[in-house]
Amino acid sequence: MFSTQYECSDIYEKEEKTFDPRRKPLSAREDPFHRSRRNRPLNDLDLKIFSGSASQELAEEIADHLGTKISGSETGKFADGETYVRVNETVRGKDCYIIQSTCPPANDNLMELFLMISTLKRASAKSITAVIPYYGYARQDRKTEDRVSIAGADVARLLETMGVDSVISVDLHCWQIEGFFENKTPVINLEAGIIGMEYVLDDFGIENIDNLVVVSPDAGGVGRAKRFQGALLRRGFPEVTLAMIIKQRPKPGVVARMDLIGDVEGKD
Question: Among 65, 80, 103, 186, which residue carries the largest CB count within 10 Å?
C-alpha cells in the first residue's frame, strides 16, 4: 500500500477526463493520497525506521518519502538455521518502527520480527511499532472444528510478549484479529480498498459502472467487499451489487466445492 501512494499520484497529472456526472468528489478526509502529495520531509530526530529482510524495498520507499534513511541493523542465519538480529545504532528514548511482512517463509519472517522487537526493547527504545503489511497466520482466526489452533491470536500474544507497543497492518483477513490484542496495544488496519476504488473509477475502463458487481472470494472477505461496495455507493453509483463465494474445504489449502451467492451474469 505504501509504495502505491507514490505511483498513484500520477492519477492527478493525467489529462482531464469526462467523468460520470453522478460521481461525487472525495472529501479531503476521504482522499487516500492527500498526505503523499504534501511530501513533507520528516524532521523528527526521535524516530527510527528499521527494515526486516522481507520488506526491504518497501521500507526504503517509506524512508525516502519521509525524507529520512533506514536505521542500521543486521539480520542473518547461524549455521544451524537460527535467526540472528543486531541493531547498529542507539535507540534509547527513540520511537522505532519495524517494517516487516510475515509473508512466506512465514515462520522465518515472524521469528526475525520477534527478535527485532525484543532487541529494540532491551536497547531502551521509547516505543516500538510493528508495521506488518501482510499479517501471517491471519487465516487461522477461529476454530473451524474441534482441537485446532487459533494461530492468529497466538501470533498477537507473541508480539505483545516480545514488547510491541502498537501494530499497523494492511487489509487484515478479518477485523476480529484486532481483538486478539489487549487494549494497551492499539492496532491500525489500513484499508487499500479506497485506492482500488479510485483505480476502478479512473483506469479500469469500465463502460457502465452500473453493471458492476463486487465479489468476495470467501466468507472472510465479505466485510471488505461490503466496504468497497459502500464506498462506490457513496460516490454516487447506487446500482453496484454484491456477491460472494462460499468455499468448502476438506483440509487447509484444498477447495472441494465453491458456491456462488448473488447475480453476476453479464456483469463486470
Answer: 65
